[in-house]
Amino acid sequence: MTTPLLKVNDLSKSYYAGYKRFKRQYNHALSPVSFELNQGETLAIVGEAGSGKSTIARILVGAEIRSGGEIFFEGEALEKRDLKQRCRLIRMIFQDPNTSLNPRLTIGELLDEPLKFNTQLDKNERKALVIDKLRKVGLLSEHIEFYPHMISEGQKQRVAVARALMLDPKIIIADEALTALDLSVRSQILNLLLELQQEMGLSYIFVSHNMNIIRHVSDKIMVLKKGVMVEKATTEQLFNAPQHEYTQRLIQEQSLFTRKK
Predict the structure, then answer these.
(1) Which residues form the ABC transporter domain (predicted)?
(2) Which pTM value belongs to this model?
(3) Are 227 and 30 a contacting pair, CB within 8 Å?
(4) How many helices (H) and strands (E) does the chain have?
(5) Hey, how many other C-beta atoms are within 10 angstroms of the C-beta on 9?
(6) How far apart are CA 150 and CA 221, in angstroms?
(7) b/e string for 160-193 if b means 16 or more Cβ within 10 A?
(8) Which of 37, 64, 72, 259 is a plausible cystine mate for 7, CB 3.0–4.6 Å?
(9) CA separation (Å) from 49 to 132, 151, 260?
(10) Using an 8 Å Cβ cutoff, are 79 and 8 in contact?
(11) Strand 220-225, strand 42-46: pairing
(12) What is the pLDDT of residues 185-197, one digit of tens each?
């Protein structure tokens, strides 16, 4: 039996909320969830705001500490790897490049940062890699001299994709990364991500509330509601025969929204 690239067992997250009648109180942002991700596969995590989907993303990239559960990467506990190793394995693309890209740095400097802090490469080697990744996402080598405000929204998201690729990760998490883009640009970025997946054997975790995007890109889907996993299935199974009423409502609402547009 093949070892999954990523295996998550009973992952949970609670936040301390003070005392009540001398007892510590906690808000449970994420009840125990388990899932697997294989190489070259795309898992979608869907749900409305407050469902816990972004909490999973932040825990996986190390931005938050889990309250319980286990995370295994290629069969080895993820915490056994140091932060630099973890940064190379799992990278994230954020929703809004206007807030995730430092406006005071050139695009070249933005892409150079992860290399500078996580590799032993010299300046010329890093620059060559930066240019290579820019070309991979459909940008020009000249863009290294540009600042974020000098390029379009779609180009900014391409820069964000390039930055996620800089350390040659095995998993990329896209946290609502396409939500703010207009339809034509969204389609271009989606196609880019699918091409990169084929070329580099990447695995994706798409965090989204947009069921149309999810249907197009994912192999399997996990549905969260208020921190609880209510359904998990292949994409085909979930859309053809959703079992939980919450999943049915998400699909119906997306369908109605699409028709109105």
Answers:
(1) 6-251
(2) 0.90
(3) yes
(4) 10, 10
(5) 14
(6) 37
(7) bbbbbbbbebbbbbbbbbbeebeeebbeebbebb
(8) 72
(9) 36, 30, 22
(10) no
(11) parallel
(12) 888 999 999 999 9
Distance between terminal CA atoms of the chain?
A: 46
As given in the structure block, the two tokens for residue 208 are 């989204």
Concatenating the DSSP letter of every residue in 220-254 gives: EEEEEETTEEEEEEEHHHHHHS--SHHHHHHHHHH
Residue 162's pLDDT is what? Answer: 96
Pairing of the two strands 42-46 and 203-208: parallel
| Contact in structure between 106 and 144 (CB atoms under 8 Å) | yes
Between the CA of residue 208 and those of 13, 120, 212, 237, what are the distances in Å? 19, 36, 10, 18
Mean pLDDT of 80-107: 83
Token pair for 64: 């938050």
Which residue from 159, 164, 157, 129 is spatially nearest to 143, judged by alpha carbons?
A: 159
Q: Which two tokens stand for residue 183?
A: 């339809």
Distance CA 156, CA 176 (A): 15
